[in-house]
Amino acid sequence: TERMLTGFGAAISTERTAEGRVITLRGQPELLAQDIDVPRDPSSAAFPVAAALIVEGSDVLVDEQLTMLATDLPQFVNGFLISSTQFAPFSTSPPPGNNLCLRGGIGRHVDSIRNSGAEGAMAIPVDLLAMPLPMGASVAAMVGETWAFQVWHRDSGGAAGVSSFTQGVSVLLR
Q1: Any idea what the Cα angle at residue 90 is, between residues 150 and 78, rounded to 5°?
Q2: Which pTM was predicted?
């Protein structure tokens, strides 16, 4: 660990005393990012990863699992998930669920197309490592970011081509 910190720019000294080995970090240097190759012993890569996981505000997601659940949908309609980093919930009429609550660049989760079935519900897993952006690009979601989600779906009211949105939800990633 001392060698790795030295490689990142930390000023470290090590000495042996009667109590054991003493490691001293001088000052609070700005650590510089470095590429790390771990060819044979992956356990040495665990130190920076473990540090990132325990630091609040870290850019490392511990668990990339997120599932959006859309309920109270018409039976047997198709829909898909959309997302954005900008959320603008509606609180006036028309009733919630008929408005697009996402703003800015909206990404369409193309692998999320589902049918609501007899239950009128869709469970849609979200890949936080590949959040869609407009024009087909994607990015990894980062800890500390807030993402907003909605499901676009067809209506079953008999009118051809009529569609609607679920209520939007905003999620802070921690």
Answers
A1: 30
A2: 0.60
